[in-house]
């Protein structure tokens, strides 16, 4: 089967020592000053409060009315299309029936 080739780590070519010019200075340890625990605060509400002004309420009512009217017009037009299609199929059925009946009487 196919086996992936795992790359090997390259070996260093020469040994490098840290520069001798680096001087390590000791640091002083400062004791931690204890601070009093913070007073728990009440969390802010997760959702901002939405305030409706008369203008925004009127816009919402107008938008809702427009949506209802558009959906109503679409549904009525679909119902009308189904009714017209049904009526045309019924007319075609009556015409075909009369043609077949008149053809059967002639024989």
Quote the average pLDDT: 83
* Biggest sheet architecture: none
Low-confidence stretches: none
Helicity level, as a percent range?
40-55%
By DSSP (H or I, 4+ residues per run), the number of helices equals 1
Strand content: under 5%
What string gives the helices and strands in order? H
Shape: elongated
Distance between the termini: 81 Å
Secondary structure category? mainly alpha
Calculate Rg over CA atoms: 44 Å
Number of strand segments: 0
Write the layout of secondary structure elements.
Blueprint: H1 54-106
Organism: Streptomyces griseoaurantiacus
Protein name: SpdD-like protein
Keywords: Membrane, Transmembrane, Transmembrane helix
Describe the structure.
This is SpdD-like protein. Keywords: Membrane, Transmembrane, Transmembrane helix. The chain crosses the membrane at residues 57-76, 82-100. The structure is a single chain. By secondary structure, the chain is mainly α. It has a domain at 58-106. It contains one helix and no strands. It has one helix at residues 54-106.
What structural keywords apply?
elongated; mainly alpha; membrane; SpdD-like protein; transmembrane helix; 107 residues
Short description:
This protein has one helix spanning 54-106. With 107 residues, it is mostly helical.
